[in-house]
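Sample entry was shown:
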Amino acid sequence: MPRYSGYSGYGSYGAQNPLVSIAEQSALPAFQSIESIVHAFGSVSMMLESSYHAVRASFQAVLGVAEQFSTMKLHISQIFSALATFRLVKYLYKKLVYLLGIQPENPELKKYIWKAEE
């Protein structure tokens, strides 16, 4: 029956039995190879995780740019709507001035709104 007294770790039992020590030393390169393979898989895993985060960040940046373009389009359309509203108000003012008899020319809506400013 083996004696377990004084067992304080992995290496202490092998130091008492030369057969175990020889087996341990002969298996050491195999375990070192396994350890290096596990380390290589861990490194590849970290590399893939880093690549995933980079792709995701790039995709979110592209979505942010697209959102900014849609916001810009909205603001530009609001500017054009404001300009069209201003022209309509200007036409209505000219029409009111004509109806009150202050101005002799009758402004036409189609010509007035779409004509180039002089």
Observations:
- The chain has three helices and no strands.
- The longest helix spans residues 18-99.
- The CA atoms of residues 84 and 113 lie 8 Å apart.
